[in-house]
Amino acid sequence: MNRITDINSIDFPVRLDSVFIRNSKKRKYKEAIGFKAVTGKTDGREKIFSLVTDNYSLITNKQALELGRKIFREYFSKESEINLSVFNVTFPETRSFCNIDLMNNLYSFNVWEKEVYIPFMRITNSYNRTKALKFEIGFSRKWCDNGVIFEKETVSLNYIHYKKPVSEIMKDFKPGEKIDKLRILEEKFTQLMIKLREEKIDRKYFVPLTAKIFELKFKIESDNRKLREREIKRMNEFVNYCEKLGNKYSYLLGNSAYAVFNVATELANNRDFVKSHRYNDYQTKAGKWLKAFVNRKENNSLEEYLKDYKYLINFN
Fold first, then answer.
1. Chain-centroid distance, C-alpha 58
2. Beta-sheet pairing, 14-23 with 28-42
3. How many CA atoms lie within 13 A of 133 on its CB side?
4. Backbone angles phi, psi at 282, to 5 degrees
5. Residue-wise pLDDT tens digits, 156-192
6. Contacts of 220 (CB under 8 A, 6+ apart)
7. What is the Cα–Cα distance from 98 to 13, expressed in whole angstroms?
8. pLDDT of 101-131, one tens digit each?
9. What is the model's pTM?
10. Where does 216-298 have alpha helices with state H?
């Protein structure tokens, strides 16, 4: 994946403007009391992102980034060296929201032997009211960009822009509660990784498992011929790419659930399959699957677990 580490793409002028309503009879405009428009200028063009009430607190992407830096530093308050940098930035073409990943370049941990992971914080902010300002912890494999949002509940701040200005947000944050939280998360993550490595998975299940992780459906039996042909093509592309990744990770990591996990997280990084604005959703699904799969009932066989994806078993 070609990562974007420069925030200039999301650091553009944005403001709250008054809203005016036109009186069709008098052909005059009257200000709409109690409402504002979130507007910005991207690529040389003025855009209207959303209509909000006048108690809305506008938080820019740059402000969200600086707030994220302050919060993430609390997770490393016992470390002597902290060097936070932007690891990745994703956003849709409209620039209406973004995800910013922060990473401490001087910190990593081993899940076993040479398998090294780096924690990161994902900052989410939006101008179109679709996403609240929030901060989540994830882990990324050091030797590649394979990442996963592991704990959505880690940081209690989930700021909806309607409470107070950004200067007041840190007052809600209790640093003492976060100092050891990262270590606890690392231990939980490591234990889950070990369990994935210990669970052997037949190579034929790699593709259907990956599809289940991301809840992918292929309408290959649709009555609509054009849709059916399009879905068959999409499925073939997915299967072929998963097989390629499956061969790679089966060789590197063995036929295990951990290998499947890496197939899924690398696929999430491929922009031919996952658009930039869906990147966070896919990594979050991988994190949810990780915990659910390890903790599934013992009597739940893999065949039963994959009953809705049987058509992808031994597809090739």
1. 23
2. antiparallel
3. 24
4. -65, -40
5. 455 555 555 666 666 665 655 555 778 888 888 899 9
6. 228, 231, 232, 235, 311
7. 15
8. 999 888 888 888 888 888 888 999 999 988 8
9. 0.82
10. 225-253, 257-268, 279-294
